[in-house]
Amino acid sequence: MGNSFLISPSLFCSFLLLSSVSVDGVNSSSPFADLYHSSRALLEEVGQLVGRHRDRFTLETMRAQNKGYAAEIAVITYNRLNKLMNGDSKFRILLSFGQHGRELITSELALHLLSVLSGELGMPDLNTVSMDNVLDNVVIKIVPMENQNGRKRVEDGDACERRNGRGVDLNRNWSVDWGKKEKDYDPYEENPGIAPFSEPEAQIMRNITKLFDPHIWVTVHSGMEALFMPYDHRNGTPDGYTSKTMKSVLADLNHKHFRDRCVVGSGGGTVGYFAHGTTTDYMYDVAKVPVAFTFEIYGNSSAPATDCFRMFNPADSATFKKVISEWCTAFLTLFETAPSHLKADLGKWVSIRGNVVDGGESRAGRRKVLDGIELGMQELKTYFRLFILSSVLLMFMFCSRISRSKLIHTGSSNLS
Ligand SMILES: *[C@@H]1O[C@H](CO)[C@@H](O)[C@H](O)[C@H]1NC(C)=O
Ligand SMILES: *[C@@H]1O[C@H](CO)[C@@H](O)[C@H](O)[C@H]1NC(C)=O
Ligand SMILES: *[C@@H]1O[C@H](CO)[C@@H](O)[C@H](O)[C@H]1NC(C)=O
Ligand SMILES: [Zn+2]
């Protein structure tokens, strides 16, 4: 008895000591403490979740490499009732998390969102029946961790790393206005790479976009609280027909979920610097995704600049849970409001795949068939030209023989 009384306080102290060590560890070697998954654990959990809900999820792993640098990206597709409904007639939503290594909280949000979509986690304040209707009408592709290699560097102790596994900023490696450097350009932070799409991660993301042809794109970051639309590379929003829709969707989200505290507008116009070669500008300008957003879900501006873990990620459980739950609900609202806002616009939309959402099924179908036979058509055209040419030659030879024989027979010269 007496012994245990003596031991308990020291156990208590060593517990304190341990916990203070782990809090220190958050700054340097192990930023995860109890709140965060390691990248491996997170992706494993995502895989298991998909395995438990094959009726609505599929998982693909895309790989690419260049010059000895390899990357892979896991993509989860959420498509409920996929046997009953053609995916092409649903709204397609592409979400990417974890493009920057140090923004750990974003991948945690992805995992949480997937758990909610699986039905394993409920959401408070949610009308389940109407949400079910919303979710029946969307196909959502989720990239929970776009930058796995950069993320590993963070886990190995470089808490400030935002670039990929060979030091290229994946949000500066896209082709819109690529490579332009501002006066405050910092190669440690923003290295765009040697050329647009030099990075396997950017190539994979571009491929996913081409194949999926989304109506809505969101890349999720942290560092501040913001709801951005294009453009990042200049001060101003686009004039396109969906510009108003994007503005009103963002204003709604900000009001409904964030008490208007997020910065809203063009990234370049509000964030205080221009960013060149960003994914969202590419999605909007080149991939013609009608609604393209960058969400910044958390930032702590009072954390010292050396403490990247705290600048970009909640460090206590209450803040962590609040951020995850607020943004998860905001995404569910987005899935509901953006398609209905967009419906009116989409008559004017010609996507990279050339289909339109209204009556999209038949047009998309036809378009795909067209794509498929386009190459064949090219060849046919070439053969047809050769055929015409040789026919003309034959005719010419034939006619000239007739005329010569006529000449010989009639002796007439009026044909010359
Ligand atoms: C992307 O990075 C690659 C590899 O460094 C580089 O060659 C390419 O120029 C970069 N492209 C952009 C748009 O940053
Ligand atoms: C992208 O798609 C093309 C054509 O489908 C394929 O050849 C290429 O390997 C893909 N690249 C990546 C990085 O997935
Ligand atoms: C923000 O950072 C400061 C300084 O590290 C810290 O005292 C504060 O608790 C942090 N805020 C949150 C919400 O984590
Ligand atoms: Zn970021």
UniProtKB/TrEMBL annotation:
Provide the protein name: Carboxypeptidase B2
Hey, what's the signal peptide range on this chain? Answer: 1-28
Q: Cite the active-site annotation.
A: E296 (proton donor/acceptor)
Keywords, alphabetical: Carboxypeptidase, Hydrolase, Membrane, Protease, Signal, Transmembrane, Transmembrane helix
- Give the similarity note: Belongs to the peptidase M14 family.
Report the record's Gene Ontology biological process terms.
proteolysis
Which organism is this protein's natural source? Iris pallida
Entry superkingdom: Eukaryota
For molecular function, the Gene Ontology terms on record are: metallocarboxypeptidase activity; zinc ion binding
A GO term from the CC aspect: extracellular space
Q: Where are the transmembrane segments?
A: 382-399
